[in-house]
Amino acid sequence: MQESRVYLDHAATTPLDGRVLEAMLPHLRGGAFGAGNPSSLHAPGVAAREALEEARGFVARLVGATPEEILFTSGGTESDNLAVLGLAAASPEKKHVVVTAVEHPAVRNAAAHLRSVGYEVTTVGVDADGLVSPDRFAEALRPDTALAAVMWANNEVGAVQPVEEVARACEERGVPLHVDAVQAAGRLPMDVSRVPASTLAISSHKLYGPQGVGALYVRAGVHLEPVVFGGGQEGGLRSGTENVAGAVGFGEAARLAAGELEERTRRERGLLERIVAGATALPGVRLNGHPEKRLPNNAHLRVEGVEAEGLVLFLDALGYAVGSGSACASHSAGHKASPVLLAMGQNEREAFSAIRVTVGKSNTPEEVDGFLEAFCTAVTKLRELSPLYGKPASPVAISGQQ
Ligand code: PLP
After folding, report:
1. Measured torsion, CA atoms of residues 111, 116, 120, 125, in degrees rounded to the nearest 10
2. How far apart are CA 154 and CA 390, in angstroms?
3. What is the pLDDT of residues 165-221, one digit of tens each?
C-alpha cells in the first residue's frame, strides 16, 4: 500500500476514530474492567452490562430515541433484515410489501426473499436525481401492506429521501415503515420524534466506529418477530451474547458524531463543493444525483468515455481510494450495472462510468486538490486509450454500401 494514500471512500466504511479505539480497549483487554458477559450476575458481568447500557444511551441520543428503543445487532445488514422480516412476520395475514427501487441490497434482498415465499412486492421508482415521490409512495400502500421501507440517504448517489413525508403517509394509513438510515446517521440531523418510522437501521462503521456492530431502533409499541432464536438477549429480538467492545465503540462513535455533526458537515460540504467544481470542470464529467438533496460528503461522478473500475484502479495506483458503485456491489454482484443508476433512468453504459467519491472528517483541501489532479490525469489517459471515446456514435459506412 502506498504511504501517502488518501482515503475518499467513506460511504464504504470509515476509519476507526482514535478516541473510539481508546474507549474500546479496556473491553477488549478484559481483566478487572471487562470481558464479562452482560447477562452474568457477577461483577465483570455487571461492568459489561453497565458499559453496554451506557453505549445504548449514546446511540439512542444520536437518533432522538430512548435507550429502550435501541437494540444492538451485528451491523446495518442484520438490522435491515430483522426489520423487514420481523415486521412482515408480525402481521402474517398481510402479504404485501412496498420498497423503493434504490434500497440497499440488505433491504432489497430481504424483500426479494419475502417475494419468494409468497409476498407481493411493489417497488416504487425514483426520478432522475434518485428521489422518491412521497405521493407515489403513498399510492403504493394498501390495506394488506405488512410493511414499507425507504432509505434515509442512498449509499451510491447520496440522494436524501423525503423520509418525513413518507413516514407520515405510512402513519396515516397504519403501515409500519422501516427506514435504512445507515448512510445518514452521523451525517444528517436525525430525530425519530419527527419522523414517525416504526424501525430504523444504523451501522457503527459508517460513523468512525468499529465494523460488525449496528443497531435497530424499534419504536415503543411496535411489534416485531425475531429472526434469530436463542437466549433472548436484546429484549428477545436479537439473541446472542452482545458484542460489548463493539457496542462500546459504537456508543462512543455515536456520542462524538452527535457532538461534532455540525462541524463535520460544514467541513465535508466545503470539500465536496471543491471536488464537484474541480471534477465537473473537465468535459464530459457530471454529478449524479440531486445537487442539494444529497449527503454532505458524497460526489457521485459520471465520467463519459471511461469505465469506472479502470478509473478506480488508476486512482488507486496514484494513491487515492474512491468507490465504484457501492461497496457491497463491488465484489459480490459481479460486473452488473448499478440498479440505483438504472432506476434513475441511466443506460448501462452511463451506469458503468460512475465513481463515488465520499470525503470524511479528516480529509483536507490539499488532499482534495491532489485528488483532482490525479483524477484529471487518470481520465485523460483512460480516454486516450479508449477506442470509443470521442468517436461519432453513428455506424461507420462500409465501403460499397450507402
Ligand atoms: N444500508 C446501507 C444504506 C448501507 O450503505 C450499508 C453498507 O454499505 C448497509 C445497509 C449495510 O451495513 P453493514 O455494512 O453494517 O452491514
Report:
1. 50
2. 32
3. 999 999 999 999 999 999 999 999 999 999 999 999 999 999 999 999 999 999 999
Which residue's CA lies nearest to atom 2 of ligand 1?
182
Of 276, 401, 301, the residue nearest 351 (C-alpha): 301
**In this predicted structure, what is the pLDDT of residue 175?**
98
DSSP 218: E
- What is the Å distance from ligand 1's center to 178 Cα? 14
Task: Give the pTM.
Answer: 0.94
Mutate to test the pocket of ligand 1, among 78, 108, 182 (most ligand atoms within 8 A of CB): 182
Q: Is 155 in the pocket of ligand 1 (CB under 6 A)?
A: yes
- Residues 104 and 151 sit within 8 Å (Cβ to Cβ): yes
If you take atom 5 of ligand 1, which residue's CA is the nearest one? 155
Q: Residues 25, 328, 333, 376: which is the catalytic one?
A: 328
Number of domains composing the chain: 2
If asked whether residues 244 and 276 sit together in one domain, one would say: no
pLDDT tens-digit series, residues 123-167: 999 999 999 999 999 999 999 999 999 999 999 999 999 999 999
Residue from 301, 303, 296 nearest 272 by CA: 296
3-state helix vs strand vs coil in the chain, percent to 5: 40, 15, 40
Say if residue 210 is in the same domain as residue 339: no
Nearest alpha carbon to residue 58 among 253, 202, 296, 201: 253
Q: Helix or strand or coil: residue 320?
A: strand
Q: Is the domain of 187 the same as that of 287?
A: no
Cα(245)–Cα(213) distance, integer angstroms? 10
CA of 108 to the centre of ligand 1 (A): 12
Residue 287 sits in a domain whose CATH number is 3.90.1150.10
List the grid coordinates of 292.
Answer: 442539494
Helix (H) or strand (E) holding 203: strand 199-203
